[in-house]
Amino acid sequence: MNETQQDPYANNGDVNAMPNVGRPGKRVFIETYGCQMNLADSELMGGILSQEGYTAAQSLEESDVILINTCAVREKAEERVFGRLSHLLRLKNENPELILGVTGCMANHLKESITKRAPYVDLVVGPDAYRRLPGLLVDAQNEEVDPLIDVKLDKREVYDGLKPVRTPGISAWISVQRGCDKFCTFCVVPFTRGRERGVPPEDILAQCHDIAERGYKEVTLLGQTVNSYVWEDWDFADLLAAIAKIDGLDRIRFTSPYPTDFKTKLLETMAEYDNICNYLHLPAQSGSDDVLERMKRMYTRQQFDDLVGEIRTIVPDMAMSTDIIVGFPGETDEDYEKTLDLMRKTRFDFGYLFKYSERSLTAAARGIPDDIPEEVKVERLSKLIALQEDISREIFQGRVGTTQQVMVIGDSRRDDTQLCGRTDDFKMTVFDKPDYELKPGDLVDVVVETATSHTLIGRVA
Ligand code: SAH
Ligand code: F3S
């Protein structure tokens, strides 16, 4: 695991998610783009394919099958994948037997337009069709239909009973919910991932026991609106409490909750269990009621502020991050000022900040013209980033002199005389290696000596 792998939206392909099961068989390379749920889905596809005797390719060049697991949330993400596909065409030319597939959200967003634009793609497989991958790959080899497109959504599919093959390390992802029913007007996810559904708790708990026994120390529960999780009489707080009681899972995280799905009980559960981390990624999207309404976000600015207040009352040291979109259609200077005000007042520890990107299929694309000029979006975004950088730096520097418990990830990417890890509240921390061995997953106290806006820097206490 590297430092960015835990960050939402930070997956940039280039590592093979397919496990090396060491058996002879067709060799697969799965590249992952987009969010953590895609990482979890790549591990699921890896599990499905390894059951059928497929094995990990050591490189793209030696692959029999390349699957690009994609994101459709912003246009830039899709354009990158088209760029990647045209780069991979070279390998198709060298090896005509190579099967090149597109999986994930782009498959359902663009469907046959993918193969219109990239006719050399053999396979387009949506997020609810992964059980059928082995058969689709056989069909693709036999070239019975070319290209093969399977983007059927299935509101019952939660992939229970399957065994994902997990990335080795200390941290595992478990999808506890699939799909989304919120239909925010800017967002393509309900169209690409279908209706919201929970995974049965027995299946989630069995996966949690399994990872704990295999030495994983941290689990991140995933869902588009994870706190709306329901299964019969279980709610999300019940699920979290049951997982928190499992021996060996030192850190439990989840992403992303939806603001109006918070119950006080969930916050009380977070306060009750030490191994549930004090960190919430709480997407706000905008600080203006008018924009929130056009986004169909179902809460007002006041309700969001009240929720932040309740969170900080029940868990005073809760770290928080958010998602913001600037340049949503009709966003006036005044609306934008309200977003700046939200950021100044809430003081999120970090923010994932985006320019609005119109997505076909969505209500906004069908009814609200994308009328904010690109230069205005760019300017609003850069000013917001600068503001958040200042706030993050102040918050991170506020930790100087404190002692933080850090879970070791491994060597720092920049300097192998240093280790990196994260605090309970998700702050990347870098420190000199002590003169005894620390392994990934170990917990160590670090005295913070300096800080940037993204990293705490210190020494072992
Ligand atoms: N509920 C999901 C959100 C998935 S999309 C979750 O948090 O897990 C992740 C983020 O991308 C959203 O919160 C939003 O801020 C941003 N986003 C979604 N659609 C977008 C669009 N059309 N343009 C720009 N940003 C978008
Ligand atoms: Fe998208 Fe809104 Fe769901 S951002 S994933 S439609 S909560």
CATH C-level class of the largest domain = Alpha Beta
Number of strands: 22
Instruction: Report low-confidence residues grouped into runs of 5 or more.
Output: 1-8
State the share of residues found in helices, binned by percent.
25-40%
The assigned CATH architecture of the largest domain is Alpha-Beta Horseshoe
Compute the number of structural domains.
Answer: 3
CATH superfamily of the largest domain: tm_1862 like domain
What distance separates the N and C termini? 25 Å
Largest sheet geometry: 7 strands, mixed
Ligands, deduplicated: S-adenosyl-L-homocysteine, FE3-S4 cluster
Backbone shape: globular
Folded structure, characterized:
With 461 residues, the protein is an alpha/beta fold. The protein has three domains: 11-150, Rossmann fold (3-Layer(aba) Sandwich), CATH 3.40.50.12160; 171-397, pyruvate-formate lyase- activating enzyme (Alpha-Beta Horseshoe), CATH 3.80.30.20; 403-460, OB fold (Dihydrolipoamide Acetyltransferase, E2P) (Beta Barrel). Helix content is 34%, strand content 23%. The protein has 14 helices and 22 strands. The strands form six sheets. Strands 1, 2, 3, 4, 5, 6 and 7 form a seven-stranded mixed beta sheet that branches. The chain has a five-stranded mixed beta barrel with strand order 18-19-20-22-21. It has a three-stranded parallel beta sheet with strand order 8-11-14, sandwiched between helices. The radius of gyration is 22 Å and the shape is globular. The two termini are 25 Å apart. The structure holds S-adenosyl-L-homocysteine and FE3-S4 cluster (F3S). S-adenosyl-L-homocysteine binds at residues 73-74, 186-187, 189, 224-225, 256, 283, 285, 323, 325, 354, 356-357, 359. FE3-S4 cluster is lined by residues 180, 182-184, 187, 189-190, 224-225, 258.
